[in-house]
Design brief:
Elements: E1 2-5, E2 8-13, H1 16-38, E3 41-45, H2 52-59, E4 71-75, E5 77-79, H3 89-98, H4 117-132, E6 140-143, E7 168-173, E8 178-183, H5 185-188, E9 193-198, H6 204-210, E10 231-237
Parallel strand pairs: 2-10, 3-4, 3-6, 6-9, 9-10
Antiparallel strand pairs: 1-2, 5-8, 7-8
Helix pairs in contact: 1-2, 2-3
The structure holds the ligand O=C1O[C@H](COP(=O)(O)O)[C@@H](O)[C@H](O)[C@H]1O.
Ligand LXAUTJHC binds near residues 47, 76, 77, 146 and 153.
Pathway: Carbohydrate degradation; pentose phosphate pathway; D-ribulose 5-phosphate from D-glucose 6-phosphate (oxidative stage): step 2/3
Organism: Pyrinomonas methylaliphatogenes
Pfam family, one: Glucosamine_iso
Amino acid sequence: MTWKMNGRPIEIHPDLQAASRRAAELFVEIARQSIKRDERFDLALSGGSTPRLLYTLLGSEFSSEIDWNRTHLFWADERCVPPDDEESNYRMVHETLLARAPIPISNVHRMRGEEDPNRAAAEYEALLRAHFRGLPRFSLILLGMGADGHTASLFPYSPALDERERLTIATYVEKLKAMRLTLTLRSINNAAHVIFLVAGAEKAPALRAVFDEKTDARSIPAKLVAPTDGDLLWVVDRAAASLLAE
Ligand SMILES: O=C1O[C@H](COP(=O)(O)O)[C@@H](O)[C@H](O)[C@H]1O
């Protein structure tokens, strides 16, 4: 059941397993609709650990329901490390999804975390502009949220939140003392569908802040995600939702 809290649609599921299954069902439905309408499905995935189960489901049980030949896979963000590094978002998606699903390698467009970050961001932006012939309109972006409210690699109070022109940028994350590559809000908010998958009690304070009208959005960047002409849905587990008002 979908609820609306302060204008944001949210579904609360018993646990990560149930939330991941629901996200997989929605993924299949959106992929079908996109391919029917546009003959392709342009997808951006996040990293971290929460979506591991979802990607594993997509690569196994749900795989035969997805037309992988018409699916183009991009990344919402990447750590500035080689693709085989433990920290790499590409590596996580490879282990869970790409190693299982029959997606053509030419349809997999990773951010090059091993390169000079500014060059890698500029190259990814050029790739997006060429693929979408201008401003990207992803069919679906799957996002996560850190306990500090960051999403993709858009961190609290980062200058990256003010970027209005670029589609992809390299950004220094003070708390991690590291560079990251990320889609900007300009790219994210032009998507046709954005789904957040969030689980765990450690995310509960940040989730409450997203759904609280009064919190400063710059302190919780996930709150700045609001597709201008698209659908937003939060798929969360009960632990993450535990501090939301009734
Ligand atoms: O650093 C990152 O964290 C977020 C959240 O990850 P999670 O494991 O706490 O869900 C993730 O969405 C992002 O892609 C990643 O680079």
